[in-house]
Sequence to fold (508 residues):
Amino acid sequence: MTVTHHLRVHRSDEELAREGQLAWRLAEIAADPVEVDDDVADMIINRVIDNAAVAAASLTRAPVSAARQQALDHAVSISGAGATVFGCTLERRTSPEWAAWANGVAVRELDYHDTFLAAEYSHPGDNIPPILAVAQHVGSEGRALLRGLATGYEIQIDLVRAISLHRHKIDHVAHLGPSAAAGIGTLLGLPAETIYQAVGQALHTTTATRQSRKGEISTWKAHAPAFAGKMAVEAVDRAMRGETSPSPIYEGEDGVIAWMLDGPDASYEVPLPGPGESKRGILDSYTKEHSAEYQAQAWIDLARRLHDERPDAADPANVESIVLHTSHHTHHVIGSGANDPQKYDPTASRETLDHSIPYIFAVALQDGGWHHVDSYAPERAGRPDTVALWHKVTTAEDAEWTRRYHSEDPDEKAFGGRVVIRFTDGSELTDEIAVADAHPLGARPFGREDYIRKFRLLAEPVLEPAEIERFLDLAQRLPELTVDEVRQLSIVATRGVLAGAPAPKGLF
Fold:
């Protein structure tokens, strides 16, 4: 049965016992030796495939190349086998924290993997690179890796359900540092005491502002979760050496809640698995069919449907205005409510266009679909008829869509909204969509075959056919993998692919 943990700030003179701290509860969950349910195991396999798919598609992009070069410029540490780096040969290893860094950037670069949205938002697949890197380094079997990943997903999703970070302009990876540290703790079978110290350190070092997702969005957007994963690996290493961390990290008088979140009078109710309860959080998350911010997924699906039903709406000469009535989050983060002029700038970065629903809706409406490269190309963004239509698209907050966005009932939780297109002849078109087609409640929910199809689509330009089959075979046998097979759970680029990617030099 789920247990609700009451979380509040405590004065220093209250001397909050360790057992009453959230970090300790997370550590207890991570140390609980519960096995992974079959349906959870199946979904973890899906997400391992999904992560590799989006990493393959980003192998030659500059941020990924830079992170990969940083990792490869570091040798394997002396007390382990090291970890693989996406794209490189399986024999080419680096230290696990740097593998977590490089692979984390590759996974996040295209904003194309799984998501969970509640009080906060997240990409829980970001847990996979650091936990897998440690598994390869220390020599873990597939069953241990599976349990570690179940913990990482569970804890991040539990934190996201209860604690809003973005409301206080704190980046959402502050929930990832603790979840990845806890997942590594489960993987290694560490005691709660050690995991507790690692969780505290991981949180302490991964709190940063949301400026990374504001205005002209930089390449750091993809690096932020990779940094959290790297910090989680280092936090576990430090805790295993007997070192301690700030405490109580959440509840302290000068802790995260008191000074970065809702303040000294704040309280939260955090839902957590009880002792012996299966970790099933991953089943409440969902992946992306399209390479764009999750709140854009349903809008792309609606736009491509309208492309077929009302092709006249794609011509700016016919359109007076397009208003997307949607949730507070969509309006203020990726909509016109953000008040970011960059969201309407044809020369904006890919990272910025990825967070501009006016741009995304306009392009999907004109093209009848979405492509992870072509839809962001400078020539696509600068097309005059697209710019004209794009600048007629605005968003508006709608109380009902906001309520549904935050609903705890999965049957009514929604990430879309209602579009009103006013034509120059005075007529109007109104339509709506609640969830993306690929969502579990959508028109075409993603299953194993869809994850494999997505992997093939994104991997075929950069992986040999035999390599695609090799990886898919390993991933689908994840719970039974041997130590050697876990160390092969990576993707190797076709000869020459990485040679054509940027290879920047830095300090190392």
Q: What stands out?
A: The chain has 20 helices and ten strands.
